[in-house]
Amino acid sequence: MAFVVIIVIWNRLNRFPPRYGPEWGSGGIFGLRYHNGVLYFTLAFEAEAHFIREDSYRIYEFDLVGDKPTSGGDTYNAVEVVDEFIYFGGWIHAPAIYEGKGDGKATISFVNKYSHVHEYDTENDSVRLVWKESIHHPREWAGEVSDIIYNPYMDELLLAREDGHKNLGVYALDRRTGKIRLLSPEPSAKGALVHDTAFFGIGNNFTEGLREIHALDLVTGRWEKFRLGESVDGGKYVHPHLGAMGGAYNRAFAFVRGGIFIGNPFNDEPFDFVRLFDFYTFYAPFRTNVLHTGGGILIAFNSHHDAFYRPRTPEEAEFSRFTNTIVGPSVLVYIAPPMVKIVGTFGARITSLEKAMGKLLLGTNTTPNVGALDATPFDTGNRDIVLLDEKILQERPPAVSFSLPLAFPSKAMELGAGTFGGIPLDGYKEPRLILKASRDNELTIYEYDLSLPLNSADEEKFDVKKGRNVIDLSSFSGIVSFKLEEPDFKGNARIDLR
């Protein structure tokens, strides 16, 4: 019977082209969750919560928050399940106010922007608004709900809030009464459960990125703070924007731009950094989620999730290059320490991950969020849900290539940028690095893996001549990153994995 339900649900999945929903660029399909015979997801920026059952297809347009037309929804995968309930959060414009274009600017008003948490009852197909909040300001907003974690001891929902101007931090929400209380004022985008502790990433995500990791004891309510550790390859990490967190192997995993912080200070393991897909662009595991499956972790590193569309200042122009430089496809990565394996390649971004009946569900999108003064009255992306067989976790990885400039952004260089890559080689027989150098140089290759506890990298040096250099990587294993002795601002690199 369950398999029949799944087939019925699969047959009702659609593609979603651009439609009305005032915001910036494109949202996506977020919060994918299959629970108790119901497939839920939110379509942003249309502000539609979809609930697909064997015998019905319901679309809720957030009219419990405010008047239509609504827009927004969820762009961080804030969803949790408890018993027969699906809790979904995010933010909503209700009603949405598109202010139009003028003087080279296109904006919307935030005066009706609400943060929210809803409850869907899978037993009786009903939606209830648990909590909403707005500061009713035309240019600022209350912290969006970007993560929901259930605390079984207190029977409450923990809310992470970082994206916004007011009321940021970690909150506890009574899921029955809707009463909310502040647990920590530190901005936090994501969290993860490990044992009886909830670890939260702390920092301003679109500026500095992850700064610290704070731990909440779910039983005593006591907080502890932990600093970030060192990189296993010895290089600097720059702009570690936090995308997702997961808990496995008695450790917390914080997925950031450029790699992963892994650790458990309660077991004398600091949150050290493993470089992974670090190209000094905005290639990052951002606006996606961790999926725990097969005892490991499945995560997407996205090539184009947030970007400037039309820069208006020199600073915006540099950030536009940082966010719009596409060095490779988005990759789906399976982590089963010490192994890290690429299991899929996709377009601009994977927005949400879920599994059901041997299938993996991926929400995908062709278009990033954009910022500044480029609002549109409709979502600009083409979004769909891709179904994959779960067996891809055990198959050979797909062929993939990355092509990147070696001229890192000036601000990154000031912060010590220089080491790049973090390429998982598991499953590839003929990996190679092609360097097109504008000068003679020396290349260091760092080799490491995800063995726990983490170990320092081994290294090997190669002479680089001006022109085209082909370096066979088949003698290396695990993960490799690279560093040139002297910066080569006119050079570029291509990494081919076959």
From TrEMBL:
The name this protein goes by in its record: Phosphate ABC transporter substrate-binding protein
Domain of life: Archaea
InterPro entries with a match to the protein in the record: UCP016666
Pfam families: DUF2139
Organism (species): Pyrococcus yayanosii (strain CH1 / JCM 16557)
